[in-house]
Each structure stands twice: as structure tokens, then as C-alpha cells.
User: Fold this.
Amino acid sequence: MTVAAAISSAGLSKRFGKQLVVDAVDLHVPAGSVYGFLGPNGSGKTTTIRILLGLVFPTAGTHALLDKDFAASAADVLPRVGALVEGPAFHPYLSGRANLARLDAADSRASARTARARIGEALERVGLSAAAGKRYRNYSLGMRQRLGIAAALLQPRELLVLDEPTNGLDPQGTREVRHLITQLGRDGVTVFVSSHLLSEVEQVCSHVGVMSVGRMVWQGALAELAAQQRVRVRVVTGRPSDAATVLRGMGLAEVATDDDAATGVLGQAVPERVVTALVAAGVGVRGFSVERPNLEDVFVELTGAGFDVSG
Amino acid sequence: MSRADVEPDAHRSETLPAPALPAQAAPRLGGRARFLRSELLMVFRRRRNLALLVVLGAVPILIAVAVKASGHSARGDSIFGGITDNGLFAALAAFLVVMPLFLPLGVAVIAGDAVSGEANTGTLRYLLTVPVSRTRLLAVKFGGILVWCAASVAVVAACGVIVGAILFPSGELTLLSGRTVSYAAGGYRLLLVAGYVALSLAMVGALGLFVSTMTEVPVAAMAATLTLTIVSEVLDAVPQLSALHPWLPTHYWLQWVDLLRDPMATAAVGHGLLVSSAYVLIFLSLAWARFSGKDVTS
Assistant:
């Protein structure tokens, strides 16, 4: 029973009053991928996630989780999905453990017999065992976030939907969550993780989708995106104009010069060959660098305005 | 019932084998029962709710002590008048006192909090993604409310019976119609009264559950539920609206005095139960209609 798409949607839209918050989103999250769902605050990520989990009903469009049409089989597919939506939420006067026990009791398919062990294991996994007996109201933001992730891990899942999982975590906690995501991904769990921080996602994701003002502006494999990047080379030399001539001869585009360097967009050319050609042409190379724009720049390009809050 | 009864982990064990635990003494409850039990623990462990029960239990004690201290029954009312003759009347007098406000207040608090409280803390979204179907969530919440109705009535009755037995005679008692019956027969009548009161309160519970689906502010839901109940009581007190009275949900609330006659007059009590059930059905349907299609954005 291999699943082709962990999440797929067609024309998913949601209108709140006059505002179209989610506008014809076609998601495709391949099974086994770690999918980064990116976009500025207010770009419709959380509403999309709420629709995916059946909390909000779409105005138009359909979606499927783990290849099952959601409208028809939500009750069958949701037990295989763990979720963290818009931050953790628990009863403040119950302990972390008691809160997990309540969620587990609500799951009609969960076995009471294994509840203790599963809860203990989930707490262990997020490093919360020591604080399990403390009341939730006394938890720090980071501990709350961990408990939220523990709740998503109460059962073995095939898909995890994590909305801003590192919100409020310190750098150490962020690293741990990133590690956890990588580990889960390696175990074959599809992870759908939303974030407004690119740097956070860039390191763990195999796929990304970028939202901007309710629309999906780009989605696909990260490698594919990298291929689209315009890699520039920069030759530091005493003779920039000669270097530029060589670069043009190699088929590089947008060749430009300044006081002590020549730059160009690499395109199909191979960096090693460029250096060889420069040397062969007698251009003294003092420095040579390949400049790959980071994802941030690419996304700013995609979302236009960059990562500001969009109205 | 269906899924809960079959081995629930069967399809999961392929991904991660459930750790084979030594036969733990954990009760093997069906999924549905576990959630209801968890709900009841939530309701009955909460300090605010326990305080409500304490207040309710204090009413018959207060009445009985006051009557004992003054040496005679303060009112000419036959139920209050009976306290000095038989302790069971302490419980009955307490019902007379708590029925218009205290009992509905408690139910309004529990029912108003039912869905809006979960929405307020944000736990509603996590319950729904567990997943708990919306219908099942309402059913479990209403189950908890019904248990609360029964428990609060039981507290009043039990405290009344106990304090009555301590302070007053507990032999034969004279019914309102003048006939004398044994203490046990009187206790049976009290049980019927308590059952009737609990079922009357179920209507407040269903109303509260409905209101609770419409807001994320628990206090607003509680206040609205209690206000609507009191509006019904006020309308019931205006003689010019007598045509409306038989349809008011609170009109038959004190009709249980009929159960203290001999023979029991059951016509009005039956009508009261019918009206109460009708309102329960109406409000549960409204709650379901409202909640099943609602966007949960809390």
C-alpha cells in the first residue's frame, strides 16, 4: 500500500466575508517528502492547514490526504495524520501527561492498554519526560511547543502537519526540532511543515511550496529550485576587461566588470573550465568564486514584496 | 460502538509494533467510554465546579439548621412546614429553593463551558484532528452535562436527607395530601422528585450546549444560558401571558410537588417531562446544525 501523494488539493479556496484568504491552491506533497510550506505571515498558510485537517470548510475545491478524498473519508485518514496547528493548546490546569492522556482518550481507535507507554514514549521523544507532571500553565513557551509535537506523535503517523513548529523555541530547541523532522523523514513519515522562516526549512526540506497573498506561487523539489537559480561567477583579476571577454566567449550571460573583477551568470558552463580558459588566455586570476544566491533571495523574488506581513 | 470494540491497533502495528506491556491493570474500555470518562474527570476535578457542588450541598444544611435553630418552620408552606416532622422534607424544601436559580446556574456553567471552553483554550482544534467527529464531541459533551445534572441533584438530595436525619425525626411521614407513609416510601418519592428535577435541568443543559457552539467566550455562553432560563421564569410569572405558560420550558419545574400526593398526580408531571424533552431535542438539533458546519478558527 504505497501512497503516491501525502497531500493533494485542487482549487482549494476559502473566503472569509469579502476576503479571499486562500485562492485556488493546488498542493502536491509527494509521499515521503519533507515539504516546507512557506510564506509571509498572513499569506494563508494556516487557513490552508485548517482546511487540510477539516477544521475549516473550503469555499471551493477538494483535497485528499494519503490518497483518500478528505470529504469522503476524513475519519479514516485523520488517525494516520499528526498535527500541530497554530501553536500548541492544552488545558492549563492539567499536567502535560494528563493533557496527552485526554487527547488519547478522545481517540476511539487508541488502545487504553498501550496509552501509558505511548504517552511516555511521545514525551521522551520531545525531551519532556522530566516536566511531564507539571501543570501546563507553568510550562515555558518552548515546553508548550514540545508538548504540542508530542501530541502529534502519540500514534505512529504517516503524515505530520506541523504549523510553525519552532515558534518560541530557543536555538537549541530549534535545532532539536529540525533534527526530529529529519529523523521522522528518514523513518518514512511525510512531514508538511509550515514556516515563515526560510533558513529554518531550507536545511531539512526536500520540497517547498511558497504562498503569497493566498496563492501558491511556486512549488516543487528544492533541487529543482536550485537548478533555476542564477549562479554567478566572479573573477578577481588585474585585467577585468580581458576576463570579461573570456567569460563571454564561454557563453556566460550578463557579463559585467568593475575595478578589479568580472562577473557573469554561469548558465550551462562548468566553473573548472572557466578557470582553465582564463588561465589559457593569460588572465591572471587572483580570486575566483561561484556565488549561489540563497533561497531567501529566490523567495523574495517569488513573493515579490519579500517576507513582510501581507494584508 | 463499532470500531471501538474491535482490536483498535491492528492496522497500526505494521508501522510501529505496540510495545508488549505486562498485563497492566488499565481497564479495557471502549473508545467511546474512555472519552466520556475523561470528560467527566475534566468536569468533576475542576475546582470551580466542585465549589458549585459545595454551594448546592450547603443549601439543605442551611435550611435545616435554620429551622432547627428557630424551633419551628419559618414558612407556612407545607413542604417547609414538614421539616420539623420529618427530615426528608429538608431535601424537598432545598429543591424548592435551588430550583429557580442555583441548580440552573450550575448547569449553565457546565453546559456553557462545554464547547466554548475548548474553543477558548484552543483544545477544540486538537480534539477535532484526533479525530473526534463533531457529532460525537457533542454527544460526549451532552453526556457529561447529563451526569452533572444528576450529580448536582443528588448532592442536594443526599445532603438534605443526611442533615434531615440528624436534626429531625426520620420515621413515617405525612404526604401533602395528608396520608401517612413509611420512611422508605417517602424516600422513594424523593427519588422520583430528584429524577424529575434532573430531567427538567437537562433542558438547560441542551440550551447551554447550543449557546456554547456559538461563541469562544465561555462566560458569555454561561450568562446567555442563565439569562434565557430566567427570562422563561419571568414570563411564567406574568399572569397576562398565561396562554404562553404551558409552552415555557420552566413552567413545570416545580410540578414535582404532585409526586408528594397520594395517589400521585402524574398528568402535569408527564406534560412537564414532555415539554422538557421537546426542548432538549430542539436545542440539541440546533447545536448539531450549528456545530457540524462551523469553521473552527479558534
In short: Chain B touches chain A through 42 residues (CB under 8 Å).
